[in-house]
TrEMBL record:
<keyword id="KW-0378">Hydrolase</keyword>
<dbReference type="GO" id="GO:0008237">
    <property type="term" value="F:metallopeptidase activity"/>
</dbReference>
<dbReference type="Pfam" id="PF02127">
    <property type="entry name" value="Peptidase_M18"/>
</dbReference>
<keyword id="KW-0482">Metalloprotease</keyword>
<dbReference type="GO" id="GO:0006508">
    <property type="term" value="P:proteolysis"/>
</dbReference>
<keyword id="KW-0479">Metal-binding</keyword>
<keyword id="KW-0031">Aminopeptidase</keyword>
<dbReference type="GO" id="GO:0004177">
    <property type="term" value="F:aminopeptidase activity"/>
</dbReference>
<dbReference type="GO" id="GO:0008270">
    <property type="term" value="F:zinc ion binding"/>
</dbReference>
<keyword id="KW-0645">Protease</keyword>
<dbReference type="InterPro" id="IPR001948">
    <property type="entry name" value="Peptidase_M18"/>
</dbReference>
<keyword id="KW-0862">Zinc</keyword>
<comment type="similarity">
    <text>Belongs to the peptidase M18 family.</text>
</comment>
<protein>
    <recommendedName>
        <fullName>Aspartyl aminopeptidase</fullName>
    </recommendedName>
</protein>
Length: 538
C-alpha cells in the first residue's frame, strides 16, 4: 500500500480547516501570507505593485484573488489564470431561525444550491460561518467580522421511521424542503444548561422570550439587540457567542450554515480515495492555490516570466455567480484593470475614472457590452505622449494574451449507473484531469484551449481525459462561460473526476489530486512559452 502523498495530506488539512467559504478564504489567506504574498485592499490605491512580487486581495472574505507578477512583466502582457469557487451546496440559517414545535427547539434553514438533501439526514451536524460583533472601545463602538465554528455536533435532521412511512420502499424518499429539512437543536424540557463551573447561564427558550416581550412592552425598546436576538434560540446564540468570545447581546448579525462534523479522510481498502464534504470545489481551489504558491516559491521563480500568474477563487458559483463577489461580478476585470493600470502610472487617474463608469453600467448592461462601449466609443481617441496607447487599450491587448483554466470538479463514471455517461466519454478515477466539452457553450472549451491544456499534460506525461454529457441529459455549467463571455478571455473548462457530487459526503481519488497539482503547476511555469507558439488570429 503506497504512502499518502504530501499534497494529498495537505488537501485533507485544507478541507478540515474550511467548513465554509469564509473559512476557506481565511485558510487560503494564511497560506499565501506564509508564502510571502502581500495583502492588498480594494479600497486603496495599488500604485506600488512591482515585477517579481506576489499579492492577493479578498472580497467579502468569501472570494480571494492571488497573483504573482513576472519579473519581465510590462503593461499589456497576459494573465495566466486558474479560476475555481469556494462555495458548496449547504443549508444556511434563515434570518429568523427560531422554530419551536412538538416540544423541540429547531433551527430554520434554507437550501443553498442544488444539494442532494437526503444525504443530510441522520448526520452529526454543527454550524459555522461569520458573525458581526459590536465591540466597545475607548473611542466608541466598532463592529468586527469574526469567523465561528462550533466544533461539537449540536444539530441533527432525523429521518422518519419506516414504520411511519410504509410507502418509502415502493415510492422512494420524498422530501419537502420546507417541512422536513429542519434540524433539531434540543428538547424544550432540556433547555436549561449550566457551564463547566456549574453556574446557571441560560433559561428555557420560551421563558426567556416571554420575559423579553414583557420588557419590550414596558420599555418600548423595539430596536434593541435583545429584541433582534429573539429571532434565534438563546441556546444557539450562547453557543455562537462562546465561539466568538463575546456576549450574546453583542452579536449584531451572522451568516451561518450547517456542516458535517465528520472530518475529511484518506480512505478505502487501498487508501486510494478521499472521503469528504465540499470536494466540489475546494479540491480544485486547493490544487490551484498550491500550484501558484509552489510555482513562485524560490527566489528566481519569476525571473523569466513576462506575464502574471493568478488564481481567482469565487463565491456563489453554486447559485449562478450573480453577486458582488461571484464570477459574474466585475471582480476579475477589476483585478486585471488595476494591475495593468499600476504599470502605466501616467494614465492611472484616467483608468480609475473609466473603471468607475464601467461599474455604474454593469447593473444594466452585459459586461462585454460595457467593455466594448468604453474601449471603443468613450476612449478610443485618448492617447498619451510618444503615441503610447492609453491603459485601457493595453488592458484589451492583455486580455487577448491571457488564458483562463476554469477548474471545477467533473463527473467520474459511476459503476452502478454506467448508462448515465456517454459511452466514449467516461472519466475514470486516477485518470487525471478531465477536459469538459459542450457544443452549446455550457463549457467554454474549444479546440485551441483544449490543445494548450492537453499539450502541457503530454509534456509531463500526465494523464488527461475528456467529457461530454449525453444528448438526452441536461448539461451543467461553470464559471468558465461566465468569464469567457464577460471578460473575453480564452478559456478551457476542466476538473478532477469525483463521485457523489453535491452530497454531504463526496469522494475522489488521491492520484487525481497529485495529477491536478502537477498539471496546474506546469501550466503556470510553461504557459508563456507554449502560447508564443500558438498561431490563430494572424
Amino acid at each position: 500500500m503506497a504512502a499518502v502523498a504530501p499534497v494529498v495530506s495537505d488537501l485533507v488539512d485544507f478541507l478540515n480547516a474550511s467548513p465554509t467559504a469564509f473559512h476557506a478564504v481565511d485558510e487560503a489567506k494564511r497560506r499565501l501570507k506564509a508564502a510571502g504574498f502581500t495583502q492588498l485592499s480594494e479600497r486603496e490605491e495599488w500604485s506600488g505593485l512591482e515585477p517579481g512580487r506576489k499579492y492577493f486581495f479578498t472580497r467579502n472574505h468569501s472570494t480571494i484573488v492571488a497573483f504573482a507578477i513576472g519579473a519581465k512583466y510590462v503593461a499589456g502582457n497576459g494573465f495566466h489564470i486558474i479560476g475555481a469557487h469556494t462555495d458548496s451546496p449547504c443549508l444556511k440559517l434563515k434570518p429568523v431561525s427560531k422554530v419551536t414545535k412538538g416540544g423541540y427547539l429547531e433551527v430554520g434553514v434554507q437550501t443553498y444550491g442544488g444539494g442532494l438533501w437526503y444525504t443530510w439526514f441522520d448526520r452529526d451536524l454543527t454550524v459555522a460561518g461569520r458573525v458581526i460583533i459590536r465591540e466597545k472601545r475607548d473611542v466608541g463602538v466598532s463592529y468586527a467580522h469574526k469567523l465561528v465554528w462550533v466544533q461539537e455536533p449540536i444539530l441533527r435532521i432525523p429521518t422518519l421511521a419506516i414504520h411511519l412511512d410504509r410507502t418509502i420502499s415502493s415510492e422512494g424518499l420524498k422530501i419537502n424542503n420546507q417541512n422536513h429539512l429542519i434540524p433539531v437543536l434540543a428538547t424544550s424540557i432540556k433547555g436549561i444548561s449550566f457551564d463547566d463551573e456549574g453556574k446557571y447561564w441560560l433559561i428555557l427558550s420560551f421563558m426567556w422570550q416571554n420575559e423579553m416581550q414583557k420588557l419590550v412592552g414596558e420599555n418600548g425598546s423595539k430596536g434593541s439587540t435583545e429584541n433582534k436576538n429573539m429571532k434565534h434560540h438563546p441556546l444557539l446564540l450562547q453557543l455562537i457567542a462562546k465561539e466568538a468570545n463575546c456576549e450574546p447581546d453583542e452579536i449584531c448579525d451572522f451568516e451561518l450554515q450547517l456542516c458535517d462534523t465528520q472530518p475529511s479522510a484518506v480512505a478505502g481498502a487501498m487508501k486510494e480515495f478521499i472521503f469528504s464534504g465540499r470536494l466540489d470545489n475546494l479540491c480544485m481551489s486547493f490544487c490551484s492555490l498550491k500550484a501558484l504558491i509552489d510555482s513562485t516559491s524560490t527566489e528566481h521563480s519569476l525571473d523569466h516570466e513576462s506575464g502574471v500568474r493568478m488564481v481567482a477563487l469565487f463565491d456563489h458559483e453554486e447559485v449562478g455567480s450573480d453577486s458582488a463577489q461571484g464570477a459574474g461580478s466585475p471582480a476579475m476585470l477589476d483585478a486585471l484593470s488595476r494591475i495593468t493600470g499600476s504599470f502605466n502610472s501616467s494614465n492611472s487617474m484616467v483608468l480609475t475614472t473609466v473603471c468607475s463608469n464601467i461599474h455604474n453600467c454593469y447593473s444594466v448592461l452585459h459586461p462585454t457590452t460595457v467593455l466594448h462601449f468604453f474601449s471603443h466609443k468613450l476612449i478610443s481617441n485618448l492617447v498619451i505622449e510618444n503615441d503610447k496607447y492609453f491603459t485601457f487599450q493595453l488592458l484589451e491587448k492583455a486580455i487577448q494574451r491571457s488564458f483562463l483554466v476554469s477548474a471545477d470538479m467533473a463527473h467520474a463514471l459511476h459503476p452502478n449507473y454506467m448508462d448515465k455517461h456517454e459511452e466514449n466519454h467516461q472519466p475514470k478515477m486516477h485518470g487525471g484531469l478531465v477536459i469538459k466539452h459542450n457544443a452549446n457553450q455550457r463549457y467554454a472549451t474549444n479546440a485551441v484551449t483544449s490543445f494548450i491544456f492537453r499539450e502541457i499534460a503530454e509534456r509531463h506525461q500526465l494523464p488527461i481525459q475528456d467529457f461530454v454529457v449525453r444528448n438526452d441529459i441536461a448539461c451543467g455549467s461553470t464559471i468558465g462561460p461566465i468569464l469567457a463571455s464577460g471578460v473575453g478571455i480564452r478559456t478551457v473548462d476542466i476538473g478532477a473526476p469525483q463521485l457523489s457530487m453535491h452530497s454531504i459526503r463526496e469522494m475522489c481519488a488521491v492520484d487525481d489530486i497529485s495529477h491536478s497539482y502537477e498539471h496546474f503547476k506546469a501550466y503556470f511555469e510553461e504557459f508563456t512559452e507554449l502560447d508564443s507558439k500558438v498561431k490563430v488570429d494572424y
